[in-house]
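During the no-cost extension, the postdoctoral fellow (Dr. R.K.) reprocessed legacy sequence entries with the updated structure-token encoder. One reprocessed record is reproduced below for audit purposes.
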Amino acid sequence: MKKLSLLLVLALLCTFFVQGVAEDGDLSEPGVLPIWTGSEPAVIRVLTPENAKVIWEDNEYTKWIEESCNVKLEFTFLPTTDTAAKFAAMVAADELKDFDVINYQLSLTNAKMYADQGAIRDVSDFFAEGLAVNCDAAVAKHPEQYLISSITTAEGQIFGVPKIQIAPQNETKYKMWINKGWLDNLGLDFPTTTEEFYDMLVAFKEEDANGNGDPDDEIPFITSTGFGGTATKFLTNSFVFEGDGDMFLLDADGNVTVSYIQDGWFEACDYLKQLCDEGLLSPDSFTYNNDALKAVACAEEDIVGVVTNSSCAFMGQATDPIRLRYYPIEPLVGPEGLHFSAYAASATQTCWMVTPWAKNPELCFRVGDFQFCEEGYLRGRYGIEPDNWMYVEDYMAEHPNVTLELLIAGDHEKKYVMYNDIRDQTVNNLYWYEHMPYYAGDVDFENCYVADDGEGNLTNWDNNATVRQNTITGYYQAVKPGADVYVPALAYSTEELAVLAEYQSTIRTYVNEQRTKYIIGDESDLDDPEVFKKNLYESFGLQDILDIANAAYQRQYAK
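Re-encoded structure tokens follow.
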């Protein structure tokens, strides 16, 4: 009996010793690695979505975090299907007490909803205390991205480390593509203004642009409802800035308004209606999907002059001769000298959320902030250096005769060479397949690609559609609206959301439907702009929407 008691005492002492070693440590000063100073790594229990392509434990990205921060990550996985439903069920059943961190991407609205249910901790105090070292550095470098204010609630709450990948091509997705063969046949240059664009379409319609002897088989301009496909966005931005969703912009006094009550918006509608009335813009543009458009635009007969789309990838591979008919143009200058891109900033989401049950919430938060940097993005999106990417100077030292091209044209230096996209691999142990706090910084503007098709031939503007898309994106980025025009994502209070729920979706539908009807010649409230505006205010609550949006903008961004 005494022997058994002695063994129990020794067991307890060993347990105490192990725990003491594991917990024998403290947190470093902000910005100093490792974050945990203990002789043994601190355990962080992470709930994250599963991904069959990722080997999580024996993973280079996992090791980078663990070795840099002196932590041990223990994973539990959400299912790959019905992930949101499973997570909601876990919150409702109070099943998150065994986790320190939820590594799951949420909108601000959903993050607040779960925080109100007690599942997520407000970490605004960590930001206020200067513990968000990488986040603060990112905000200082790119204040125009509103990285933190866009995930801050109306009440000043922040529920996690953000996640954002600046996607330049998607930010300016509404691109126009013109059949260069038709321009060559008619001796025309690419248009630069809405007036020149109109004249070009008339020539396409009347002068046998495809050169087959039939002057009546050309479709000057047709597009689709696909990604970046609508005809209205590209051309409206030559008259007034118009984005997606609520179509918010700032007026001259810095208050939130909407594009569809501005004089320029009605002028754009008249311009588009003229194109349609004269047979220059096909009304099928408002109903065709990309498959329907492809059947017409990629026909051997070569009967389409202009399309709008983000990339025209639906037409075929980047070197497909039919796809190579079409060249992108810069945003057109309108009658008042305006030429915006239909810009929509890359969305910031809430990620890496600390639970109320975290054993060391500050450590958990700082490990999330540690990942929010360009190095984290490079490791998390492309893999490890030099196997998946290299610095330009290192790559050129090994390949002095190779030509490099920027992925996105513009005033950016060549800094990184990306040559092995691991997202296409079946299974990898290199990263978490983008399930992490994510910050691209300038990487997407500084990427280079090897301008070689593998057979020693340089890829260029003329033989590769991807080069065209990447190059033109730089020009679109150059004319995106500035902070005096653009309204970033807005965070609303619960009371404000209740009011918006009554009007927001219906007013968007009304505006888009009435504009389409007007352009294609159907009866529309836009036949009388004053009637249209009266309906917006009296039937669709426009003034309430503007008052709420302006209040949200002033508290988030005006300061």
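Confidence is low (pLDDT under 50) at residues 1-22. Residues 494-520 form the longest helix (27 residues). The remaining legacy entries will be reprocessed before the final report is submitted.
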